[in-house]
Every structure is written in structure tokens, then in C-alpha cells.
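Notes from hallway chat w/ T.B., transcribed later so I don't forget. T.B. wanted the structure written out for a chain they're using in a teaching module, and asked if we could keep both sequence and C-alpha cells in one place. Agreed to drop them here.
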Amino acid sequence: MVKLQQTSQPAVIYPDSDRKPMADNTKQFRWIVVIQQNLDWLFADNPNVFVAGDLLWYPVEGNNKRRAAPDVMVVFGRPKGDRGSYKQWEEENISPQVVFEILSPGNTKPEMNRKLLFYDRFGVNEYYVYDPDQNELTGWLRREGFLDLIESMTNWVSPQLQIRFNLSIDELQIFRPDGQKFLSYLEIAKQVDEERQRAETAEEKANRLAQKLREMGIDPDNI
């Protein structure tokens, strides 16, 4: 009797790259970075909130074709840290709860419909799509098991992130729970520089006052 040798199945490889660019233009890239970095900052003190940008997400073990790379995703209940990709079965089977996509002229309607179906099927609770060229924000919220379109995004507050969206000017504004606006790196650097200049000016005024007091024979240290 001939015994057939058992053949082992080859290990499934989950690539860390889909060979697609992170962004198609500078505007899309800027918004991805602003949202990702500000959300990272917002949850900096919570070790169990993972925020990522353009990271491949594999929801099903053994299937490396079923995947998505959200422009920004937030996962509550998973530790911070570097990852080559987000393999959900290695993350206590916790799916990203909040996802952002930033539109570019290259995005097609069928492509965005497929993304909506993917995020709906695999457990995303909040999904936001921003079109910076048209200044249009669309959102979906999971209700009764499905992602349902949010009728109005005017001053909408994310239930899980507690951030507020404002579309009343020419460009989307996003505000933290404490009312501070999401800022780009350049805006933050400008604020820091202005604060430094104000501090230097205040110090110069104090030094001039101390000098005048000394000229009047008054020790400023004793005042």
C-alpha cells in the first residue's frame, strides 16, 4: 500500500505595501498628515489608541487579497507602536473603529463605493470622506449594524473621537474636544515662534525697566 505524503500549504504572505502612492497631490497629502498627526497628538496620553496613516489593513487571516489602506485609521483598544501592516487576527480581532479618506481627482465613484462596502462589512463605526477641492465632507455612522449616511455634517461631532467638523469657510476646520483647532506643522511652528518672540519682548521690557530703576538708585530685586 502506497502512502501519500502530506504536503504543507505555503505560508500566506501579507505585503506591507500595495505599491500605490500615499497621495496623488500635495493637497491630499497635507490633509492626510494633518489629520493623522493631530489625532496622534489628541490621544498621545492613551497607550491603547493606535493611529495610522496609509497602513494596509488585513481583516481576514489567510486572505491577502482582501485588504484596504485607509488614509487615516484609529483603533481603540490596541497599543501604540510600529507595524508593517494591521493584521486584525493578531490584534485581538479588533477592527479600526474610525476611518478617514481624502479624495483626489484620481478617485473614482466605483472605487469609493467598494471602500464603503469594505468598511461597512469589516466593522468600521465611523467613516469620513473629505474632498478638499470641493470642500465637501461626507460621513457615515454605524447604526443598527450598518454604516448609515449622516444627513448633515455641519458642526458634526464624532461620537468616538469627540472632534468637531466645521465647513463654514473655504476649507474644512477640525477642532479638538478642548476647542483647539487641528493645525499643520507650519502653523504650529509659527505659533511657537510668535510665543518665543512675545516672551523675548516681555523679557526686554523687564530688563529696560530694571535698568531705569537702577539709574534712579532703586534695586529692582528689593521691589
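Follow-up for T.B.: Helices lie at 26-42, 109-121, 185-215. Might be a good example for the class.
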